[in-house]
Amino acid sequence: MTRVLLFGANGQLGLALRRAKLPAGWTLKALSRADLDLSDTPAIEAAIAAFKPDSIINAAAYTAVDKAESEPKLAFALNRDAPAAMARAALGAPLIHISTDYVFRGDKRTPYLETDRRDPINTYGRSKAEGEIAVLEAHARATIVRTSWIFSADRANFLKTMLRLAETRDEVAVVSDQRGRPTAAHDLARACIALVEQHLAGDSHTAGLFHFAGAGETSWAEFAEAIFAEAASRGRRPVHVRRVTTGDFPTPAKRPVNSSLDTTKIEALGIAPAPWRDGAIMCLDALLR
Q1: In a 3-state reduction of DSSP, which class is residue 29?
Q2: What is the CA angle 199-53-128, rounded to 5?
Q3: Cα gap 85→43, rounded to integer Å
């Protein structure tokens, strides 16, 4: 029996992992915020020691990007200190830790590679960047999976926000000068499961940094247009997207202009992301049927 311990049970990725079809012989223990305070590092270590997992997936994180500017202590506790404790307590068990495109500045003209320098421009990004470093220093077999623009039929995310706004508005203003690769949570869950399988099979190539994001690059405005078009094809009211710039919508935390991640490295392992549009259609089918 393979024992897998999941942190972040009720987030978008956590829920997708709990619903996913797991390999035969796997037992998944999923811990949520109600089960464990991730700011309590001794409690994290105790949970790992008690379960004795064969592998750990950390899908938990502080993700309130703007709020992190006023709550840096909490952001670093959850995004750096908690995963570092997991890495130390893993005792050699493979650890999959989810990170973000926000570890980069976002001014590169081409998609970011795993070898590009970390240079975050906000507190959230800095907390995640330092979390990556702490995990890799504490665990020689750890795998960091950077992803971007996660969406699903669960929890708060861009796709669900657009559907909510479409209920009362004929026009929605959306930023058009930030580009990236939207990622369906269920597709990311599939990638995590595949990485754990390869880890447990003894494949040393699965350790280190990887990027996984939905196939195809787009802007937030184009993403919104696709959502509204698909919703309209299912009988919902048409909505117009008014394209605006980042400067038109100032926020407490700066955002990367380019969030596009190159996924060539993980594809070489046979783990290829699905097109983001396919994932969006699946989510809309679930939400609008």
Answers
A1: strand
A2: 70
A3: 10
> What CATH number does the domain containing 123 carry?
3.40.50.720
- Tell me whether residue 210 is in a domain: yes
- Cite the active site residues: 124
Q: What is the pLDDT of residues 36-63, one digit of tens each?
A: 999 999 999 999 999 999 999 999 999 9
Structure tokens at 7: 């942190």
Query: pLDDT tens digits for 1-21?
Result: 899 999 999 999 999 999 999
Structure tokens at 238: 């048409």
- The verdict on pTM exceeding 0.90 is yes
pLDDT of 202 over the 90 cut: no
User: What is the rounded CA–CA span in Å between residue 101 and residue 119?
Assistant: 10
CA distances from residue 194 to 22, 62, 158, 188, 189 in whole angstroms, order as listed: 10, 25, 26, 10, 9
pLDDT, averaged across the chain? 96
Question: Per the domain annotation, does 28 fall within a domain?
Answer: yes
Q: In what order do the strands lie in the sheet with 2-7?
A: 26-31, 2-7, 55-58, 95-100, 143-147, 208-211
Query: How many domains, in total, are found in the chain?
Result: 1
C-alpha to C-alpha distance for 193 and 55, rounded to whole angstroms: 10
Helix (H) or strand (E) holding 277: helix 276-288
Cα separation, 214 vs 276, in Å, equals 5
Q: Which domain holds residue 106?
A: 2-155+181-216+259-274
Tell me the mean pLDDT in the region 209-235: 97
Encode pLDDT of 56-90 as tens digits: 999 999 999 999 999 999 999 999 999 999 999 99
